[in-house]
Amino acid sequence: QVQLVESGGGLVQPGGSLRLSCAVSGFTLDYYRMGWFRQAPGKEREGVSCIYNSDDSTYYADSVKGRFTLSRDNAKNTVYLQMNSLKPEDTAVYYCATCETGVHGIVAGEGWRADYWGQGTQVTVSS
Questions:
Q1: 7: enclosing H helix or E strand
Q2: How far apart are CA 11 and CA 124, in angstroms?
Q3: Taking Cα atoms as reference points, which of 91, 123, 100 lies closest to residue 20?
Q4: pLDDT per residue over 6-41, tens digit each?
């Protein structure tokens, strides 16, 4: 049974930092590209970052490039997102999932099902 549990969100002031974690069960990270997505109120879910399982290459949306760092620990079957220099526009619910990159940016991986999404973790950036 696929289960993803995101944690680490919270309320932070602009310029602050947070580190998100995503614990995965039901499949092994070694075989999948993994990424983070976010959904702000009234907006569609968007891909934030993606890390390849083949060589740990990482890809980021332009809006977070240089501020966010994605990493993975295959031994713990967990992915992380270090977020620095946070801005109010980073406010959203953050989710992890398998991922692909291409002309449409960062999207959920092939075969990803709607019922695989976790509950997400809320990140609020506000003074």
A1: strand 3-7
A2: 5
A3: 123
A4: 999 999 999 999 999 999 999 999 899 999 999 999
